[in-house]
Amino acid sequence: MNDAIATVLRAEKAAQKLTYTDLVEATGIPAVSLKRYFAGERDITVRVLALIAQALNMTPGEIWAKALERL
Q1: 17 Ramachandran zone, left/alpha/beta (phi>0; psi -120 to 50)
Q2: Across all residues in the chain, what is the average pLDDT?
Q3: 46-55 and 20-27 are packed helices; what angle lies between their axes, rounded to 10 degrees?
């Protein structure tokens, strides 16, 4: 599931033309950690997913639903 969520996060980031710098500023999550979440290299917690979702103008549920479609 982690890889599916990471795929959704990357797609949404690209679609919205956001940079990691934009997301760092919006979430307060260090760039190194964000890159690991977006690469699927680090397990994403609900709290982190909520912060990233908000930065992407989405809900965690929307991200989760899109990730489930990819499984």
Answers
A1: left
A2: 96
A3: 120
